[in-house]
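Hi support team,

I submitted a single chain yesterday and got back a structure, but I'm not sure I'm reading the token output correctly. Could someone confirm the output below corresponds to the sequence I sent? I've pasted both exactly as they appear in my results page.

Thanks,
R.
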Amino acid sequence: MTSPFKAWIYAAIADLLLILAFAAIGRDAHARGDIIGGAFMTAWPFLAGAAIGWIALRAWRTPLVLWPSGVGIWIGAVIFGMLLRAATGQTVVLPFVIVALISLGVFLLGYRAVTALVIRMSRKRQRRA
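Hi R., thanks for writing in. Yes, this is the structure output for that exact sequence:
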């Protein structure tokens, strides 16, 4: 079993990579050049929003649970990400908000749900053994 310290490090890295993947996929889908640098420019508001969610919920205590950590990080990423995008003159239109809400939800909640399922199944097997 992973120690609580390692669990939050892994979860934070997963969140970072998945938000970067979201940005890179979006930039590639819209044929915008400079996918690497551009992905960071697109991702930073969402990364900052996720960080706000992490801090507000002290998610390092239970980083892999869906509620409240996963949901708070996801909603923080979207709400604060969009606010920061608007504040810095980046595009914030309803279709993009919807895509971000769905995509980041699938990414940030999806791996937590799969992790919870794997842990639950592993514990069941250990009890049977």
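A quick pointer for reading it: The mean pLDDT is 93. Let us know if anything else looks off.

Best,
Support desk
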